[in-house]
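User: Structure tokens for this complex, please. No commentary.
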Amino acid sequence: MKTDFNNFSHHAFDSMGTRVNLWVHRSAGHRAAVAFRTGETLIRDFDRRLSRFRPDSELCALNANPAESVEVSPLMMRLVEAALQAATSSGGLVDPTLLDAVERAGYRESRAGVAPASLGDALQDARLVRPARPDPAGRWLEISIDRARRIVTRPAGLEIDSGGCGKGLAADLVAALWRRLLRTGTPFIVDCGGDMRVGDLPDGEPPYRIKVETSPALPEPVELELRSGGVATSGIGSRLWRTDGLHAHHLIDPATGEPAWTGVASATALGVSALAAETAAKTALLGGPIAAREQLALLGGLIVEFDGAVTILDSIPIAQVA
Amino acid sequence: MTVKMTDSSKKQRHHAVTVFYASIALFAVVLALLVIRLEAGLDPAIGKVRGQTAKPHTAVKSDSAAQQTDPIPAPETRAS
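Assistant:
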């Protein structure tokens, strides 16, 4: 049985440099309107306080603070925790200390609304294709947190980036809020630019079916089925530009500090949360085709390689639609 | 001493009772319409969230012609 999204109310807006989509099942009644308002407020607040593109954000204030230990807000604490969690579970591939490298690669300002360069041209230019590796110095290991006192400690000058986990974390936070607001079992989806968290489905409800959009495009449409948790896609085609005659993108090889050309152009992952899915997708993309298959075999997903080859890791039902 | 109501007084009392019950009925109808509107998720505040530059958009699928009937988009995961 297929999900009928006409049984959902839908709300969309732009934030976090992307399009945010929210769905709540119509059985929620008037609570859907409250859910949309609270969800939008949370995401806009998240963006205002944690964006590296806003000079007045708490993240920029933390990065500019010369003190080694800084007291932070509960939301900032959640972001740093999430960043360290992503770094740990990816073995250092999803590294939150690469802000300098991202900016050196040319990503100094938000690219929201900026058309990406041609992926085909970029892949032709990619000469050295190899898996990314963790930074041998492992600077993210120098970040520590004191949850009780809400203190972040890191060497002065070591900047933290939210890029690797921000959207997934935001989707999870909205979902946590909605689980208290909506009746248990109310279906919902929180989508922050393609990184999604869904509400747990009760028995008897058909699973959510989520279409996968990749670059390069899939030869035929693919939908993922899930009943809880999250799904996310990471790809080099969406934020791709030319600088100094070379192509660059925002997914950095921690070992070299340069954009990673690993042989995987796009990776989609399922996870127990949106944050876990986002981390798994980025880890798969950075790890290259062989490591990506191992990574995604745990919960399921899909990779598209530079030559367009598609691999579906089908540990949970994944539908290919005609 | 017994006071007998005149025909005029009886008419006035009947009129007052009629107006009273009509008011209650009107109030009930208005309340029912309000509840139906809220149940349909059509809070008029949605879509006007604090004047942000981005344009929020809310769609509620309904059989009623009076309500918004934009198609609800299906979710898709993508890199952004």
